[in-house]
Amino acid sequence: MRKGDIRKAQILTVAERLFLSRGYLATTLADILDEVGCTKGSYYHHFDSKYAVLDAIAARRADRAFDAYRQGSAGDGLHKLNRLMYHALPFGREQRDFLAVLLALGDTPEGTLVVRRLIGVLRLRFLPELEQILAEMRAQGTASYGSLPVPELVWDAAMAFVANTLLSIARDAPPTPAQLLPRLNALRFLLERVLDIPYGSVTIISLEEFADTLTYAARKAAASRQEEQQA
After folding, report:
1. Taking the CA of residue 155 as centre, how many other CA atoms within 13 Å lie in the half-sphere pointing to its CB?
2. C-alpha torsion angle, residues 44, 49, 55, 57 (rounded to 10)
3. Does residue 211 register a pLDDT over 90?
4. CATH code matching the domain that covers 1-48, chosen among 3.40.50.1110, 1.10.10.60, 1.10.1760.20, 1.10.260.40
5. Helical segments of 106-206, H only
6. Closest CA to 18 of 98, 117, 109, 93
7. What is the enclosing helix (H) or strand (E) of 85?
8. pLDDT digits (tens, 9 = 90+) for 34-50
9. What is the CA radius of gyration of the chain?
10. Is the pTM of this model over 0.85?
11. Distance (Å, rounded) from C-alpha 75 to C-alpha 96?
12. Residue 116 region, left (φ>0) first, then alpha (ψ -120 to 50), else beta?
């Protein structure tokens, strides 16, 4: 790896740790420079703003999610579908601090752009896999959807679920499990009906993990915004 690539990776690693521990809003460029031990000139050689680092972190986290999926993608089509959805939808517990960063930004221009970036890279990585899984299930007779472009429609529905869930939580108080269950069940039901697979076969993620992740992230985001307002 070239020296410049090493420095860029160092900046990303340090910035990600600071954003996830302190929050994006509370982390300054000076904080990142001090931790990395580099000059502004070196930083701006790789990134033109603090947001540009967050944008790159979102892309890198999408890549990690895909790598995690590929490490255990064996099994039948339904198992693969549930695994893919679990890793593609950023609601697992390991994502909760990153989600707190996104929720703290809310529907600001930066927040909207970074969610769009995350969803864009997730699409590049996961959609071809989803197309392959559904084609296999269709060939095996475990899914049925005719000649319609169903894989892309399923993907778009899942990502709309991600974006709408984050936006709703960013605007409102931390959610309760009872408030989250209808959203998750609606996505499960949609996939089962569109793919013509048995009721209850799409799990994606447990309600407990889904609720724990988003409740934690919402509370941390609210505290981050409050600290920023008081600063």
Report:
1. 22
2. 60
3. yes
4. 1.10.10.60
5. 109-140, 150-171, 177-195
6. 98
7. helix 77-88
8. 999 988 999 999 999 99
9. 19
10. yes
11. 27
12. alpha
Q: What angle separates helix 96-105 from helix 3-22, to the nearest 10 degrees? A: 80
Cα–Cα distance, 69 to 4 (Å, whole number): 30
Return the CATH fold of 59-230. Tetracycline Repressor; domain 2 (1.10.357)
pLDDT range class, residue 225, cuts 50, 70, 90: confident
Q: Which residue bears the tokens 């209808």?
A: 182
Domain ranges of the chain: 1-48, 59-230
Question: Which residue do the tokens 């410049």 mark?
Answer: 4
The model's pLDDT over 69-96, given as tens digits with 9 standing for 90+, comes to 999 767 899 999 999 999 999 999 999 9
Compute the average pLDDT of residues 163-178. 83
CB 10 within 8 A of CB 18: no
Conformational region of residue 38, where left means phi above 0, alpha means psi within -120 to 50, and beta covers everything else = beta
Given the structure tokens 């894989």, which residue do they identify?
A: 151
